[in-house]
Amino acid sequence: MSSKRKITVAYGDGIGPEIMKATLNILEAAGAQLEYDVIEIGEQVYLKGISSGMEPGAFESLKETKIFLKSPITTPQGGGFKSLNVTTRTSFGLFANVRPCKAYSPYIKTHYPETDLVIIRENEEDLYAGIEHRQTQEVVQSLKLISRPGSEKIIRYAFEYAKKYGRKKVTCMTKDNIMKLADGLFHKTFDEIAKEYPNIQTDHKIIDIGSALIAERPQTFDVIVTLNLYGDIISDIAAQVTGSVGLGGSANVGEEVAMFEAIHGSAPDIAGMDMANPSGLLNGAVMMLVHIGQPDVAEKIANAWMRTLEDGIHTGDIYQEGLSSKKVGTQEFAQAIIERLGQKPVNMIPTVFDKSATEPMNIKLSPVTKSKKELIGVDVFVDWDEDGRDPNAIGEKLRQADADGLKLTLITNRGVKVFPGGMRETFCTDHWRCRFQNAGQSPVSHAQILDLMDQVAKLGFDFIKTENLYSFDGVRAYSLAQGE
Ligand code: NAD
């Protein structure tokens, strides 16, 4: 049996084929033990009418090899096409997006030469679930779903990553001062898991100041773990401040399958011109080699690549007059790296990978202790655009729906309390949240809610949706209104 590891490879669109050819040439010259199953993805597949951008056989290849080295693809403009990245991430459970952002100063221009951080972004949940609805003339909603196991999995991954790669600190970033339940769950889970890693420093930053600090003091961060949307944004900020947006590689890691790629897109403006910098994909491939247990080959390539940068052999995108010695094309750049295999950088710190690094880390979730869940009310959302949108008018009408003990206790508009006792100045849309609870907040039955809905409908209201209000172990498990 061959000792070579079979991986799935996609050449992609635009500059994809050129940078993949350069990358595979380097991998081969460095002695990577690989064989390839090449699949077709991207524009040509989309244009055949396959909305996922991936031939059905491509999924079979990934199921078999479990490792995907992917060039960027062009996403056709217009509706109907799904993001291939999102499809791959969600279909194969690639829950962790890992993006190292490192400065290579002075060879790559940056204001922060000491930057060396890794962003570990949750990849499956949050607003990226894409559960959206238009509910009224004026209002749409996008659901942000955060789960305990999803949060725990990515947070454990971040700590295991820090341990495996000798990183000292893990910073969690959330906006839990505002989203106390969703982001609060992530932060709370982080604090719990952190206790299991006493040798790793931890801290938490609110995402807005956290982003500002990445832009201004990136060298103070080591590993950052965060939710999907924040991670997407801060990883571009971090890549930009290190000056290496075109050089970054990225890994999307699941329990079984992992996908490795460049951060950048298919750059159709320079496709076929032998101008593209293959470094992003090459750095993705280096991460892949570490992941599949070939860290010595990964190290050899990373060091030869840094040596090439130091020798001033640069593609056009990183060429600097006075510093670079030679402007080269894609394949010549790859050749220069191949010639330096076995050499180390002289001025930059050589890369060293832990030789014991092997296949995906074993992430075990904590056992779940069931809480006592009690139904204690209901929020009824209605579409209402009458009586000059006077909150007192809708309040008086809905009071007639008080049924079988459930009483209207509160109405909010875009989260702000407008009834009873709202402020005249509050701007109201046509989207109203109306809260019903029993006196003394005693438990509510489903039958009571059904009766209530019957009454609300009879009063002529279009109820958009209901949201049950629960307590868990006696603790309120829903947010209060602004001004409540
Ligand atoms: P892009 O990253 O492709 O290009 C932005 C700019 O950077 C262009 O001027 C380009 O020439 C330059 N550039 C990018 N990579 C380079 C490299 N390796 N060497 C030298 N210069 C490089 O972003 P875009 O133009 O917004 O997107 C083009 C296409 O790529 C779109 O269809 C987009 O949907 C797709 N895209 C795909 C992925 C992916 O497959 N992972 C990621 C991002 C964008």
Verbal overview:
Homodimer. Its cofactor is Mg(2+); Mn(2+). This protein is 32% helix and 23% strand. With 484 residues, it is an alpha/beta fold. A hairpin with a 2-residue loop joins β19 and β20. α9 packs antiparallel against α10. It is elongated and about 80 Å long. The chain starts with a strand and ends in an 8-residue tail after the last strand. The model has no long low-confidence stretch (mean pLDDT 92). Bound molecules: nicotinamide-adenine-dinucleotide (NAD). The site of nicotinamide-adenine-dinucleotide has 19 residues, from loops.
Sum up the structure in keywords.
elongated; 6-stranded antiparallel beta sheet; Isopropylmalate Dehydrogenase; alpha/beta; 484 residues; 3 domains; binds nicotinamide-adenine-dinucleotide; 20 strands; Alpha-Beta Plaits
Strand sequence of the main sheet, in spatial order? 2-1-3-12-11-4-5-10-8-9
Helix/strand/pairing category: alpha/beta
* Quantity of strands, as a count: 20
Fill in the CATH topology of the largest domain. Answer: Isopropylmalate Dehydrogenase
Beta content comes to 15-25%
CATH superfamily of the largest domain: Isopropylmalate Dehydrogenase
Gyration radius (Cα, Å) is 27 Å
Poorly predicted runs:
none
What percent of residues adopt helix (DSSP H or I)? 25-40%
Tally of discrete structural domains? 3
The geometry reads as elongated
Termini separation comes to 69 Å
Number of helices: 13
Which distinct ligands sit in these coordinates?
A: nicotinamide-adenine-dinucleotide
Main sheet makeup: 10 strands, mixed
Family: Belongs to the isocitrate and isopropylmalate dehydrogenases family.
Subunit structure: Homodimer.
Function: Catalyzes the oxidative decarboxylation of isocitrate to 2-oxoglutarate and carbon dioxide with the concomitant reduction of NADP(+).
GO molecular function: isocitrate dehydrogenase (NADP+) activity
